[in-house]
Design goal:
- This protein is of the alpha/beta class and 492 residues long.
- Helices cover 42% and strands 21% of the residues.
- Helix 3 crosses helix 4, helix 4 runs parallel beside helix 6 and helix 7 crosses helix 16.
């Protein structure tokens, strides 16, 4: 235990408390980077992560990042009590997972509790993710992880009301069925509070597309009121803090694209469980360039989803869909939002693949929620869409969340044309997604692609395959170069 003089370091560390010691002082206490120390200033105290300075820092001083300085009510010239702190017991369980042990629910809960409280470093969280990636999580562990993520985050409570939800595993550009399904299902009287993600590596997430139309960062109390009044909403999950621990784990998984199956399942099911969903529809696209590439893997995931759902008191239905090409015409927030509104307005040039898939999904949810007889859900969904009820419901949701003025289309448009006659036999989802991001999506909502041709379409030399939309000349120049080097369409 030492008495050290505090120095304020003008750096914000986020939620985690960080302090800085001179290398000699740290060595005297046998401390290393990432160790924990207990710092006390009278009645104020905290546990902080340690950083070490090699030079330029006095032996009898301790540097406090801004959050730690504020929490300790520190003043210059004081002396703070600094002592060595044991690692959280959760680090012991993380090590066990790395060694291949199956963790008990209470052990998983301890890890999640410490993740949520920012008591684990990124390195320690990465070790947990690595252990799960190497050794997997069985169904019991996955259900326990799901429950803990929900337990240590915010929740929405709708009492005994039947809540329905849906999720797509992802990987297919476009595919904005949620923005059509929610209005249809809630217009029929079902409760569907939908939280969605922003894009990580894709040109747009559901939340990015919805944000073109309405505010998607809405706090939990307001969302509760919107759902109670209208029946549903579509918002960004990260803005509600419904699965805080999951967001932390996604952050450390991202650099190496580590996607442990158990964590993928827990991540999805936690978001459904946190809004009280009792019926859940899972869409698994299958294709050569999406997350799930084989029917065998899809069937395996389907079995796990259903079993884990049962453990959580949730009835889960899983459907397989075609992931071989984009769904809809637009790729990018604005262009996707325009697709959605065309479908809801029953416009003749609305993308029919997006419309049909949304009607299919909505129909299944109407059947699962008891609003349609089995086998007649699609028919009822189509009737709601055609009548204009779904459009009215979408407008109510947009107004309740906070309507936005849609931005103008991108000022630069480049047409990618075919060099020969033939038939489109392959579309490369990854190249299209890459082009849309290079063009500016999702940061520039108007950036992206507008597809003019799909699989099996016959084309003639000089016809436009797709358009690149961008507001930035440098981005457009780069997108043009990529479109000429990498073939997104194969024509035979």
């Amino acid at each position: 235990m030492l008495k050290l003089i505090p120095d304020r370091i003008e750096i914000r560390s986020g939620k985690q408390y960080i302090v800085l010691l001179n290398n000699r002082t740290a060595h005297m206490l046998d401390l290393h980077i990432g160790d924990r120390v207990r710092v006390k200033n009278g009645k104020y105290e905290l546990t902080a992560m340690l950083q070490i300075s090699e030079e330029g820092f006095l032996d009898d001083h301790i540097g406090l990042y801004m959050e730690a300085w504020k929490e300790l009510r520190a003043k210059r010239g004081q002396r703070l009590t600094v002592s060595v702190c044991d690692k959280p017991i959760s680090t012991k369980y993380i090590k066990q997972k790395l060694e291949g042990h199956v963790l008990e629910p209470n052990e998983i809960d301890e890890i999640v509790k410490d993740i949520t409280a920012d008591d684990l470093s990124d390195i320690e969280m990465t070790y947990f993710v690595s252990g799960c990636y190497i050794h997997g999580l069985n169904n019991t562990e996955t259900a326990a992880l799901t429950k803990s993520i929900v337990k240590h985050g915010s929740k929405l409570d709708f009492g005994n009301k039947l809540v329905v939800d849906k999720h797509c595993i992802g990987g297919v550009p476009g595919n904005r069925t949620t923005l059509i399904v929610v209005p249809i299902v809630t217009a029929a009287g079902l409760l569907m509070p939908k939280t969605s993600s922003r894009a990580i590596t894709s040109p747009a997430g559901t939340a990015d597309t919805m944000e073109v139309l309405a505010n998607v960062t809405v706090d939990a109390p307001k969302l509760q009121k919107i759902a109670g009044k209208i029946g549903g909403f579509m918002t960004w999950g990260g803005g509600v803090d419904l699965a805080a621990a999951d967001d932390h784990m996604i952050r450390v998984r991202h650099p190496l694209s580590l996607d442990p199956e158990g964590m993928l399942l827990a991540s999805i099911m936690a978001k459904k469980h946190s809004v009280g969903a009792k019926r859940c529809l899972i869409d698994i696209p299958i294709g050569p360039q999406v997350k799930i590439t084989s029917l065998k893997h899809a069937k395996h995931l389907k079995d796990r989803f259903i079993k884990i759902g049962k453990m959580l008191g949730m009835k889960v239905k899983v459907v397989f869909s075609d992931g071989s090409q984009p769904i809809g015409d637009g790729i990018g927030p604005l262009l996707e939002a325009q697709d959605v509104m065309k479908v809801l307005r029953n416009e003749p040039d609305a993308p029919q693949d997006l419309k049909e898939k949304a009607l299919y999904m909505a129909g299944l949810l109407l059947e699962m929620g008891g609003k349609a007889i089995m086998g007649f859900g699609y028919r009822k969904a189509k009737k709601i869409l055609k009548s204009g009820m779904a459009l009215q419901q979408m407008e109510r949701i947009i107004e309740a969340q906070g309507k936005k003025r849609m931005p103008p289309n991108a000022r630069l448009v480049y047409q990618v044309k075919t060099g020969k006659d033939g038939k489109i036999t392959h579309i490369d989802n990854k190249i299209l997604s890459k082009l849309a991001r290079v063009a500016g999506a999702p940061l520039d909502p108007a950036g992206g692609l507008l597809l003019k041709k799909k699989l099996d379409d016959k084309v003639k030399k000089g016809e436009t395959l797709f358009e690149i939309h961008s507001n930035n000349e440098d981005r457009m120049r780069l997108a043009k170069e990529i479109s000429q080097k990498e073939r997104a369409y194969i024509i035979k």
